[in-house]
Design goal:
This protein has 148 residues and is mostly helical. The chain has two domains: 73 residues; 74 residues. Helix content is 81%, strand content 3%. Strands 1-2 form a two-stranded antiparallel sheet. Helix 1 runs antiparallel to helix 3. It is flat, with a radius of gyration of 24 Å. The protein starts with a helix and ends with a helix. 1% of the residues are buried.
Length: 148
Amino acid sequence: MNIQKITTIVALALGVLGLIFQIVILSKGDDVIEMNSLAGNFSTVTPMISLALVILAIVVLITLASSLATLASNPAKLKKAGLSVAAFIVVVLISYLLSEGVETPRKDGDVLSAFGSRLVGTGLRTFYILAVVAVGSMVFSGVKRYFK
């Protein structure tokens, strides 16, 4: 059987299943679903959420497999991707080394650990470094194009 036929059949089956779940949800009505959820009963919407998660997982796996297959077929692209991943890891490592962790009380009474605080700082510093690199590359590209 052709991969295109299998994909079509799976997509059709998931679509029909989603349609059935949607009909069930619509037939119950908003008020009943809201009352059930206040009582802790989420049985009406849980199948739809589970189906959405399954579809998301399928799409992510297909995308990863396709990307990895493309990279594996072209050594130049694989090398470029490896360098990009290594550069990202270096940026995260630099951000981690520049961050410091301090135990911080939260509004709900819990305490954010020093390690958790350091991870938050790492994420922020990584974002700032990548934002500066992105803006810098856009400016460089614009200036380079202007002078050509």
